[in-house]
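Tokens in:
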């Protein structure tokens, strides 16, 4: 007799949603990968999806700080691999959204000997828990940590600022992603300053996008609220009154889940702001 607690075999695949496994990467450090992972993850969770964030940035672990979860991490992926705990014990639930969880790979550099296979197994196990989105916050650089972080991913989000050094590194990373079989990459341009673009002191988002030739997911303005929210451990998108950067992250999150019509359908009082955002960043109207 079949175990009533288990689904019949032919229904198992239907019960587990197709997870989207997205690595957030950049090449150059400090361009906003972790900020983007936290805010996009929170936004997607608020839209009702089950989201797991993986902090693959060993030693420089800070996704937990951005989410205000630093005191809740008892176990990391290293503990799972060493048999010290189960996966669900290392998946820390967010304070605000129970459908958002965080897994840190390791708390310190000394205890890091994760292989690509380990990463793939971990991500597969998370998928089988029914997560719709798994966002992997990539470590800086393009060495072993980077290769491990990208190996389970099927899609990538490449973060850059509108500076030539960051763009060059983003281009290099795009090539490495392709070489590793990840062809589905999108671009997030962060720390954009419309005032500087108008003065011709900064490349426009469109220039950056055209240089890289990667489809644009979104553009985030330079905004002091990003730093304030980092320090408080509260992602921007949680604020009751969204700031411009918060709106921009929400917008990017909606595009990520496939709501392309966001600008057009907008009938909220924010309409004016959204249109301005698009005009400023992209140089054209919706
Ligand atoms: P990475 O993970 O790529 O190293 P972080 O997300 O940690 O980058 O961001 C690096 C620093 O830049 C942080 O101090 C963060 O608060 C700041 N920052 C990121 N995005 C913005 C922004 N749009 N406006 C202002 N500061 C930002
Ligand atoms: Mg980071």
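Residues out:
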């Amino acid at each position: 007799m079949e175990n009533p607690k288990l689904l019949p075999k032919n229904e198992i695949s239907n019960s587990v949603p197709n997870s989207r496994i997205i690595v957030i990467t950049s090449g150059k450090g400090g361009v906003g990968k972790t900020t983007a992972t936290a805010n996009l993850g929170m936004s997607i969770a608020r839209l009702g999806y089950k989201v797991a964030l993986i902090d693959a940035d060993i030693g420089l672990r800070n996704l937990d700080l951005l989410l205000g979860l630093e005191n809740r991490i008892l176990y990391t992926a290293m503990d799972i691999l060493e048999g010290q705990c189960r996966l669900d014990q290392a998946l820390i639930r967010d304070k605000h959204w129970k459908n958002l969880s965080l897994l840190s790979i390791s708390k310190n550099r000394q205890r890091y000997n994760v292989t690509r296979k380990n990463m793939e197994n971990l991500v597969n196990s998370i998928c089988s828990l029914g997560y719709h989105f798994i966002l992997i916050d990539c470590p800086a650089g393009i060495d072993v940590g980077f290769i491990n972080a990208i190996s389970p991913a099927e899609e990538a989000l490449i973060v850059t600022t509108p500076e030539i050094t960051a763009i060059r590194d983003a281009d290099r990373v795009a090539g490495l992603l392709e070489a590793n079989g990840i062809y589905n990459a999108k671009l997030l341009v962060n720390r954009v300053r419309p005032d500087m673009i108008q003065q011709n002191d900064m490349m426009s988002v469109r220039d950056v996008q055209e240089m890289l030739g990667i489809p644009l997911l979104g553009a985030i303005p330079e905004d002091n609220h990003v730093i304030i929210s980092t320090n408080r451990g509260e992602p921007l998108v949680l604020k009751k009154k969204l700031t411009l950067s918060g709106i921009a992250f929400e917008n990017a999150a909606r595009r990520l889940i496939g709501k392309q019509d966001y600008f057009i359908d907008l009938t909220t009082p924010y309409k004016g702001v959204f249109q301005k955002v698009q005009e400023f960043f992209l140089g054209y109207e919706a």
